[in-house]
Structure formats: structure tokens, C-alpha cells
Design brief:
Number of strands: 15
Strand content: 15-25%
CATH superfamily of the largest domain: Dihydrodipicolinate Reductase, domain 2
Mean pLDDT: 98
Number of helices: 10
CATH class of the largest domain: Alpha Beta
CATH topology of the largest domain: Dihydrodipicolinate Reductase, domain 2
Bound molecules: (2R,3S,4s,5R,6S)-2,3,4,5,6-pentahydroxycyclohexanone
Low-confidence stretches: none
CATH architecture of the largest domain: 2-Layer Sandwich
Strand order of the largest sheet: 12-11-7-10-9-8-15
Helix content: 25-40%
């Protein structure tokens, strides 16, 4: 069976995923496209999905009999309505982060899915499919004993003018929020954010860098430096300290050169390159499950918990206080 996919949102990530489905992955074809700027969808159709139908409205794409599964890659504020529509139509839906822009919105999705009694939603937290993070998780589980602390960093070379302080959480740190929960099989009980001296490279509306401090239910303490104008590259660091030893996330593979009295290797600058194979793997997994009607990967519940945890971090940014995080009871569907 070739899974027939409809892509809503043909901006940067929608284009990238369409290219991936058409040129790299197996078992699926993009048969429908939709964007609030129809000319963008048309452009993508012409370059990557010639047989796709372009829909003016995402809702019509979801309702189309020709569409088996939906990819939501549109702007964050529209995710909730499209994911809810896909659930109502009983179609598997892959939603880029964030699942919804508010915790209440994410809860509405969890409630709708739980009511239907069947998992349909996969959230695009691709790091769970990254080989390095999987190696780190395995090493932690097999060799480190009880994990005690995580030291980490999320660095971007630069961010656009419209990037403001809370986005360091909602847009950037949200990946760590999901990754740490998955790595540790744990949830957070509190968050605090402290602001070091500000870099001169950050524009007025973003406090940069920031350090987020999290505590988990099992007492693991996590620190993460978010530095989105670090200049030198896109750099993701993660070190787990356990009772029996310490493990680091491997660096991306790179050629080492010895030249002109220097020993060096390149550092990636674009997150799309850094997690390229993880993006491939998460979507392939989504596609592979459609024929049997199963859904895996990060769930709507994970998207909801990420939203609750993000909100607490933003409150911590704004108040300077340690903010408690408490989660509602998890519906049995997500056990
Ligand atoms: C972007 O949306 C991402 O998902 C990247 O992983 C992150 O590093 C970046 O800060 C975000 O803007």
C-alpha cells in the first residue's frame, strides 16, 4: 500500500517533509497540499509533487477521500484546529511542534483523542529518532546506574528579529523538554530560569543566553543553556551524570583535518542538517504505521505535557521564581 499523504503548510518544514516523502522515504506519496498562500502550495507541487491536488482550505484536504494521513506543518497557531479535524475524520496525523500554542489547546486534542479511544496523533519531536540520542539513552540505561544530573546546551548561531524571549522556551527549549522526559522516563516538578550577562549579538526583544533549571519527580536536576545567538554554529550538547559514570551525546560525524598548524572539524550551522536523519526516521515510522492503523512516537499526551512544562518555564522567565509543575492524570490511552 502507498500511503496517500496530505501536507498542510508548505513553508520551510512542510517543503522539507514533502521533499523527504517524495525523494527519500518509502511507502508514501504526497497527494494533496494546502497553504494559506496558495501560490506556495502550487510552487511546491510544481517542484516536488506534480500529482498532488492543491486545496485552498486545510479542512477540505483533511476531508478528501484521497488522503489517508495528514501532516500539519502550518504556523503553530493553526495546529490545534487541523489536528482536531484529523481526529474527527479518524485519520492519522503527524503534527509539527507545538501540538498547540496553549496547554488548554493541547488538552482539547488529548481529550478528543482519548474519547475516540485510539491514538492518531504523532508530534514532531524528532530527537527521539536521533541515533545519537538513542545511543545515549541505551548507554545511560545499561551503564550509568541511576541518573542524577543532566548538563546540556541548545545553541543556535542566530535568530530572526521576530524571535522574542518566550520563544527560547516554546520554539527552542521545547525539544529538550520532550527529550529529557523521554530519556529519563520522568516528568518535571519545577522550573527556574536565570539570565546571565546578555550577549551584544542579541536584538532588543530576546534575553540571550538563558539557563533553565529543571527538577524531575525522581529528583534528577537538569541545567540547560539556551544560547540562540552563539554565532559559531548549531550545537546541541547533552551530558548525563549517573551513579556509575558519565555519558555524552555524540558529536555529529565530521571530517577532521590537520592543516596549517590546526586540527579542526566543521560544526553544522542549520538544525535541519543536524537532525536530518532523525526527521527521516520519524516520518518513515509514521508512514510505516498507517497501513496497520497504529500510531507511535511522541503522543498527543507528550505534546500536552510539553506545553504545560513550557508554560511553567515561561512563567519562570517572567517572574524569576521557581515554578511548580503539576500534571493532570494521564488517560489510559497513553499508558
Ligand atoms: C527551530 O524551530 C527548531 O526546531 C530548532 O531545533 C531549534 O534549534 C530552533 O531554535 C527553533 O527555532
Amino acid at each position: 500500500m502507498t500511503v496517500k499523504i496530505g501536507v498542510i503548510g508548505t513553508g520551510m518544514i512542510g517543503t522539507d517533509h514533502t521533499r523527504r516523502i517524495q525523494d527519500v522515504l518509502t511507502g508514501a506519496e504526497v497527494v494533496a497540499l494546502s497553504d494559506y498562500l496558495p501560490e506556495n502550495a502550487e510552487k511546491l507541487r510544481a517542484t516536488h509533487a506534480r500529482r498532488a491536488e492543491v486545496f485552498a482550505k486545510g479542512e477540505d484536504l483533511i476531508a478528501s477521500d484521497n488522503v489517508d494521513a495528514v501532516l500539519v506543518c502550518s504556523t503553530g497557531s493553526t495546529h490545534e484546529e487541523y489536528v482536531l479535524a484529523a481526529i474527527a475524520a479518524g485519520k492519522p496525523v503527524f503534527c509539527e511542534k507545538p501540538l498547540a500554542t496553549t496547554a488548554e489547546g493541547a488538552k482539547r486534542i488529548v481529550d478528543a483523542e482519548a474519547l475516540g479511544g485510539k491514538r492518531l496523533v504523532q508530534v514532531g519531536f524528532m530527537r527521539r529518532f536521533d541515533q545519537g540520542y538513542n545511543m545515549l539513552k541505551r548507554t545511560m540505561e545499561e551503564e550509568l546506574g541511576t541518573p542524577l544530573m543532566i548538563h546540556s546546551a541548545h545553541r543556535n548561531p542566530a535568530v530572526p528579529e521576530q524571535y522574542v524571549t518566550p520563544m527560547a522556551i516554546h520554539d527552542t527549549f521545547i525539544h529538550e523538554i520532550d527529550t529529557f522526559r523521554w530519556l529519563l522516563d520522568d516528568d518535571f516538578v519545577s522550573a527556574q530560569v536565570v539570565f546571565p550577562r546578555k550577549t551584544k549579538h542579541a536584538h532588543e526583544k530576546v534575553a540571550d543566553p538563558q539557563i533553565v533549571l529543571l527538577e524531575t519527580t525522581k529528583g534528577v536536576r537538569i541545567d540547560c543553556e539556551i544560547f540562540v545567538n552563539c554565532r559559531y554554529g548549531y550545537d546541541i550538547q547533552c551530558q548525563i551524570v549517573g551513579e556509575e559514570g558519565v555519558a555524552n551525546l555524540p558529536e555529529p560525524m565530521a571530517i577532521t583535518t590537520r592543516k596549517e598548524a590546526r586540527l579542526s572539524n566543521a560544526i553544522l550551522t542549520d538544525w535541519k542538517d543536524r537532525f536530518k536523519t532523525a526527521f527521516d526516521a520519524e516520518l518513515q515510522d509514521f508512514i510505516d504505521r498507517v497501513p496497520s492503523g497504529s500510531t507511535g512516537g511522541p503522543s498527543a499526551w507528550d505534546g500536552y505535557v510539553a506545553a504545560i512544562s513550557s508554560d511553567a518555564c515561561v512563567e519562570a522567565q517572567e517572574t524569576g521564581k521557581i515554578i511548580e509543575i503539576s500534571l493532570p492524570v494521564r488517560p489510559a490511552l497513553y499508558d
